[in-house]
Design goal:
The chain is mainly α. Helices cover 80% and strands 0% of the residues.
């Protein structure tokens, strides 16, 4: 069983490394400002999800799940909303423009 856990650790490290490499390539194409705003959007989504998730427990009780699951669900909803809002705003405000020819 210890070999199986070791395989999954290596798989997660490889997946994380590939994700960082793809984000670096994508960031190079997007530009420095949009990449920085993308990182800021991830950080803000994390913070808002962490601190704001418990506030959605009461409205989400309609779903009939335990409060712990509702707290996680509320955090995911808020974090995803903030991430998408900031990402779309950054894409619109700092869109790529064509170079003059």
């Amino acid at each position: 069983m210890t070999g199986d856990g070791y395989f999954w650790q290596i798989a997660m490290i490889v997946a994380a490394t590939l994700m960082v490499a793809l984000m670096a390539i994508r960031g190079w194409r997007m530009g420095v400002v949009r990449q920085a705003l993308s990182i800021l959007a991830i950080a803000m989504a994390y913070v808002v999800g962490w601190f704001g998730g418990p506030f959605l427990v009461v409205p989400l009780r309609i779903l009939g799940m335990p409060d712990g699951i509702l707290r996680v669900l509320g955090s995911v909803i808020l974090g995803l909303f903030v991430f998408l809002l900031l990402s779309i705003t950054a894409a619109v405000v700092f869109k790529r423009t064509a170079l003059p020819t």
